[in-house]
Amino acid sequence: MVRKHPKEVLIAIGARFAEGGNYYIFTVFILTYLSEQLDLSRQVGLTGVMIAAAVDIAVIPLWGALSDRVGRRPVFIGGALFMAAFAGPFFLMVDTRSPVLICLALVLMMALGHGAVFGPLAAFYAELFPARVRYSGVSVGYQAGSVVLGGFTPMLATSVVLWSGGASWSLMALVAAGALIAAATMAVAPETFRRSLDAEAGAAARDGAVSREAVTTPT
């Protein structure tokens, strides 16, 4: 898989910068930011994240269904670009310390940003790799992104806040950078939503049958 499909592996990892990396800023780091940096009750963040997550759950299938109609790339890229553009307004709304605006910012970011990049992702991964290496490719691409981005993004966000003296522009730049990396990755990726996995499986089965026949046929 690594030898024959390195581009697909890198695409799978790069696509997670918007969904995997930024997701932990909106759901994990934001709790610390609200309580430690803005001196708000932790309940404000927990309530906002729970409401935003519930809305996200509802819209993810809709984004996935849309990607079945128009393609994985336009839906994903649109969500990633929204995430990058909304990074500034998001933290400006959060910095007001208004629970209503904080909740609204989380809902908009999760529903229109995260939902759009996460909805098509599973199908895109399955269509990206050929059947012989599909499980390995999806696993390596997704889990490598989880380890690197999920593990280090909250720490990186804390570091940039300390480095910038608590200025939220550093977080805006971090979120926008992750989203743009993912958008650029998907821009160079192939469109996969018309790829027939059944036809591919049939071809693989025929190739396997031919190989077995060649091995067992006496010379």
UniProtKB/TrEMBL annotation:
<dbReference type="Pfam" id="PF00083">
    <property type="entry name" value="Sugar_tr"/>
</dbReference>
<keyword id="KW-1133">Transmembrane helix</keyword>
<dbReference type="InterPro" id="IPR020846">
    <property type="entry name" value="MFS_dom"/>
</dbReference>
<feature type="transmembrane region" description="Helical">
    <location>
        <begin position="75"/>
        <end position="93"/>
    </location>
</feature>
<dbReference type="InterPro" id="IPR005828">
    <property type="entry name" value="MFS_sugar_transport-like"/>
</dbReference>
<feature type="domain" description="Major facilitator superfamily (MFS) profile">
    <location>
        <begin position="8"/>
        <end position="219"/>
    </location>
</feature>
<protein>
    <submittedName>
        <fullName>MFS transporter</fullName>
    </submittedName>
</protein>
<keyword id="KW-1003">Cell membrane</keyword>
<feature type="transmembrane region" description="Helical">
    <location>
        <begin position="99"/>
        <end position="128"/>
    </location>
</feature>
<keyword id="KW-0472">Membrane</keyword>
<feature type="transmembrane region" description="Helical">
    <location>
        <begin position="21"/>
        <end position="38"/>
    </location>
</feature>
<dbReference type="InterPro" id="IPR036259">
    <property type="entry name" value="MFS_trans_sf"/>
</dbReference>
<feature type="transmembrane region" description="Helical">
    <location>
        <begin position="140"/>
        <end position="163"/>
    </location>
</feature>
<feature type="transmembrane region" description="Helical">
    <location>
        <begin position="169"/>
        <end position="189"/>
    </location>
</feature>
<keyword id="KW-0813">Transport</keyword>
<feature type="transmembrane region" description="Helical">
    <location>
        <begin position="44"/>
        <end position="63"/>
    </location>
</feature>
<keyword id="KW-0812">Transmembrane</keyword>
